[in-house]
Design a protein that fits this description.
The protein is α+β, with helices and mostly antiparallel strands and 313 residues long. 41% of the residues lie in helices and 25% in strands. The mean pLDDT is 79. Pfam families: HTH_11 (PF08279), WCX (PF25583), WYL (PF13280).
């Protein structure tokens, strides 16, 4: 990703007087144009980088400028290392170089304490089992994001309908244990959120696009869900018996759990009624009973009966 590449370039320039743009491009497997965009970003952050022309030229820090390692504390370096380690748990080892460089600036006398800090919190995004196809999609989309080129794919929506899409990619989002692409759909002329597992025949194009001004801090994917929840949510009352109360405690906040007087809980949730909802309810198996509303209770009973019919001979 871009942030760890920028940090890697800064650390390299701290240790080397000059380095060729082509060498940086080969090292990070991006184009020379991307490297020059990175240099502009680093300059914009207040670290003066100069490009020297000629046979012995290259890219280097402005003469006399020093970046003190103490600009970041060991705790902050450990937090960066932990974040990179977490991101690296899914989608290859592209952050390994930066992690090694961060480790290299820690004095030997403090290395043991630094290693201890980096193992206090481990976040592993990788799923149980191999997800080779998903990792390939992530790699393709990362390349498209780096190069600012469009992608084409067939998209299967929640209703099972397939449409062809051409999209300008903006952001990869890991949300709710699933990867999504947030981008501008040229077919719909609007921003959309696409689940990677629903993409088929993903292809990176050569068509370069000019990115629109998007404020990612507004979290449009969250706002979109909240808007849909407000307008279409259905109150649903669930019953967890005493022997299944631990499942309710694992899934719901304590403020949502209402003791039923018999050692179990009643829980009221508000979700849009769609295929995801029924899959979510079925995931509890026989440990939950839907009390209200009647039509969801009836629909879930029909789905369960259909499942049972497939296995009862």
């Amino acid at each position: 990703m871009k942030i760890d590449r920028l940090l890697s370039i800064v650390i390299l320039l701290m240790n080397r007087r000059l380095i060729q743009a082509k060498e940086l491009a080969d090292m990070f497997e991006v184009s020379v144009r991307t490297i020059y965009r990175d240099i502009e970003s680093i300059n914009g952050a207040g670290i003066p980088i100069v490009t020297y022309q000629g046979a012995n030229g290259g890219i280097g820090l402005m003469e006399g400028y020093r970046l003190d390692r103490n600009v970041l504390t060991d705790r902050e370096l450990a937090d960066i290392f932990t974040a990179l380690q977490s991101v690296s748990s899914y989608g290859g080892n592209e952050h390994t170089l930066l992690m090694e460089k961060i480790s290299s600036v820690i004095p030997p006398s403090q290395s043991a304490a630094f290693r201890s800090k980096t193992t206090q919190l481990i976040i592993d995004f990788s799923p149980w089992g191999l997800q080779r196809i998903l990792e390939e999609k992530l790699a393709t989309l990362k390349e498209a994001l780096e190069e600012s080129v469009t992608v084409n794919f067939d998209y299967v929506d929640a209703a099972g309908q397939t449409t062809q899409r051409s999209v300008e990619p903006y952001t990869l989002v890991l949300k709710g244990q699933a990867w999504y692409l947030y981008g501008f759909c040229l077919n719909r002329q609007d921003f959309r959120l696409f689940k990677l597992l629903r993409m088929r025949e993903l292809v990176k194009n050569t068509q370069v696009f000019i990115a629109k001004d998007v404020d990612a801090s507004e979290l449009p994917w969250s706002n979109e869900y909240q808007r849909s929840t407000v307008t279409t949510a259905t109150p649903i009352v669930l019953q967890f018996k005493a022997e299944s109360k631990h499942l309710a405690e694992e899934r719901f906040d304590s403020t949502e759990l209402l003791p039923d007087g018999n050692g179990g809980y009643k829980v009221t949730i508000n979700y849009p009624e769609d295929g995801w909802l029924y899959g979510f309810l079925l995931s509890f198996g026989m440990h939950v009973e839907i009390l209200e509303p009647p039509h969801i209770r009836q629909k879930l009973g029909q789905i369960a009966a259909g499942i049972a019919a497939k296995y009862i001979t």
